[in-house]
Amino acid sequence: MKENIKEQMLKHNTYLTKYATNDTMAIYLQPYESDIRPPFFRDIDRIIYSLAFIRYQDKTQVFPKSSNDHVSKRMIHVQFVSKIARTIGRALGLNEDLIEAAALGHDLGHVPFGHQGEYILNDISLKHNEGYFNHNIESVRNLMYIENYGQGLNISVQVLDAIMCHNGEFALGKYTPKPKTKEEFLHQYETSYTDKNVIASLKPMTLEGCVVRVSDLIAYLGRDIDDAIRLNIIKREDIPTNITQVLGTTTKEIVNTCITDIVNNSYNKNYLLLSKNVYEAIVALKKFNYEYIYSKAMSKETIEELTIMFNALFDTYHEDLKTNNPSSPIINSYLKNMSPDYQKNNSLSRIVIDYLAGMTDDYFLKEYKRICKENNPS
Description:
The structure is a single chain. By secondary structure, this protein is mainly α. It folds into two domains: 2-296, Hypothetical protein af1432, CATH 1.10.3210.10; 300-375, no CATH class. It contains 19 helices and two strands. Strands 1-2 form a two-stranded antiparallel ribbon. The radius of gyration is 21 Å and the shape is globular.
């Protein structure tokens, strides 16, 4: 009976195109114990039940500390990416399980207060000789070494690679997968800490990974406009007509235009292709968003304040680890629960960086207030 159920679960492989990643191609870094679930399907389960996934619900997407409940958090963004990517994947006959797992896990390593927090934590990481900090690399690290109390979750290499290579900051007109072994994947992961050029050169090993990468870009470009309008940062009519005439003006129109364009130009091909006019409009929209939305998402004063806060928390936790302060949360609610291997194989600085990266916005602020109160009890 179990084998019949397993066969039913694997039936979707018969609908995949020759360029898709069949479930039988799944690669794991540790021994894989199969059950009725296909491998990438099980990866989805492991990701959505992870502690880091739960923390998406209180992490900044673009606009921090907004009192408007309709402004996106990181949890909403990853679901938009998943839906856009699965739509493209189904239309092109690709493995939707692999796509969904990578889409839902792609931002697990994002730090409090979005990309600005990431920039600050990168500076701290470099200062303390822990290498470059990139949220996509931290997402992979989270799944391999931090989740499950420091034992990792044994996610497939294809999903880990799609997460590592998802960076939607780099818009391309054509996305071509670059096959790689698990050793090549691990080499790229490891060298990303010491070579800042690695991030920009990453290419997914699967076509599904390419879908997640372009879907990340599509998802944030449209939705971030909606949030900015809702917060009165821009008006919809501010978007240049050379963009709206191609992509449309609403998120619905932008997403629909991009998905349709990709599907029409990529069907039965081993790459994803955007038409010239849609690609140029996406580049122009990305430039518009950076100039009129992202540059205004946080004031200079807020950035300076966050920089002080990140450094204060880092220094405090680092000292707590050095002195083995039993009352510190980094020890009594984090490190003491982690595996012996995690405790043994990581420097104090790396442990603090992992702890900070995993925080929600609210917990970050709460901890900073606690530390300030302890240092200034009056």
